[in-house]
Amino acid sequence: MSVLGILTYFTAFFQSDSMSSILQQELLKLVWVNKLYTPQNLKTREGHSVVVIHHGQINPASGPDILGAQVEIDGIQYSGPIAIHVNASHWRQQLHHIDMEYDNCILHVVQHDDATVCRVQDGQPIPTVTISYPKTLDAIYHQLTEGDHGHMLCGHLLRSMESVNRYHLLTRLMIERLERKYHDFLTLYAQGGNNWNEAFYITLFIAIGTGKNKEAFTKLAQRVTYTNLCRVKESLISVEGLLLGAAGLLNTEQTGRFPDAYTVRLQEEGDHLCRRFGIQPMQAREWETLKCRPGNHPVIRIAELASLLCSKEFLFSRLIDCTTPDEIRQILCAETSEYWFTHHLPSRRSDFSVKRIGGMTQNSLIINLVVPMMFTYGKTNGNEQLQERALEILEKVEAERNEYIKSWSQVGIVVENAFFSQALIQLSKEYCLKKRCANCNLGKIILCSQEKALSLSDIL
Scanning 70, 298, 406, 437, which has its CA 20 to 30 A from the CA of 317? Predict the structure, then answer.
């Protein structure tokens, strides 16, 4: 085997071992907080008796694994965080021996006590206890995290739940997903100088940029800012020329065609406005155009965006005021200029077809743009009614159709609307794909109910 082959082998080996340890550590946290370990009479490696008064809660952020724990060691009570590892030696591997944050740990819980761990400040050992748990948990955990069997287990549990419990669980997942989008939107809001219109504008481009072109649409929105566009939005051909020119999609020489009169005007507008605003145009190769249906081609998408941004005054405010999906669709349903009715690329004629933002794209924009924006604006301004309205709108929009929803449908889950599909996408992306079964409410019920009666109310 070559040196490169050996390095590749060991890199894959250690990455696999590290991933396995992380998954096992997540299970150990669940075992600890739900008191699934045996025996219950704990002792430190030095023989000191340990009585657990409160097991604490799993820390969702970085730092010690368990927060708010309370234990009694040889009659003395201690309160604080707890660190949990599969092997005690992982303490050093994860660099806790040089991290002052772990000095406050009142206990170190491990499965295998193979090393002494000490505090950074005074070098004193941290009390360590060894716990074990039934082997059936490992077997079930393996089923959940490996292959399709876990998906079937979760699907069966979700199907068999009472409707009120299923709704409660999916609502939690939906809120999680909206919270993530909330933070994404706030980041764009801050980057845009605390301007809601700027944040909305960039999110609009991201939301309409499907598949491999999402990054290119994001880059275009960053180059042609909302402020730039507002200066020319009275003229549709100026907006088209600016966006298509900055996108690098007006060069007809690459297709071997002579530009027609409309394309020449677009090129002139694009060149002039890019120079005026100091914009360096993108390269055409940055866009994915192969295997692209005419309606999804970036040129047509950009022409639709230009029409939408020119035709609607105060777009952000108008969408915020909507109360139903139909009201939102009326605003989003923008037709391109007439030139694109007979062209799908600059200077390339096609059969007559009115180009507009269609129903599926409108639904996608409602789900990925309008609802998160409405939720974020409501939460930022303390408007709970607006947040509730965002959720209600999702319940009235058709569910997405993608690989995640298809996999849940195959195990018998009926996805009624976008509220449920977004919750299941959150479940798939953030838990199933990342094998975070020990952190997932479905996974917790499956794992914990093997050893003790556990309902959804116990988990949430």
Answer: 298
pTM of whole model > 0.90? no
**Phi and psi for 422 in degrees, rounded to 5?**
-65, -40
What is the tens place of the pLDDT at every residue in 33-78?
999 998 778 999 899 999 999 999 999 888 999 999 999 999 999 9
The answer to whether the CB of 432 falls within 8 A of the CB of 413 is no
Cα–Cα distance, 178 to 394 (Å, whole number): 11
Condensed to tens digits (0 to 9), the pLDDT of residues 428-460 reads 999 999 999 999 999 999 998 765 544 444 544
Looking up tokens 């299941």 gives: 424
| Distant-in-sequence, close-in-space partners of 232: CB < 8 Å, separation ≥ 6 | 238, 239, 242, 273
Residues 68, 243: Cα–Cα separation, whole Å: 53
Q: How far apart are CA 164 and CA 316, in angstroms?
A: 35
Terminal-residue alpha carbon distance, the chain: 51
Q: Which two tokens stand for residue 309?
A: 């941004």
- Which residue's entry shows tokens 């890199």? 11
Element (H, E) at 374: helix 371-380
Mean pLDDT of 409-438: 93
Amino acid letter for position 276: R
* Cβ atoms of residues 408 and 154 within 8 Å: no
Helix (H/G/I), strand (E/B), else coil: 117: coil
What lies within 8 Å, CB to CB, of 323 at 6+ separation is 389, 393
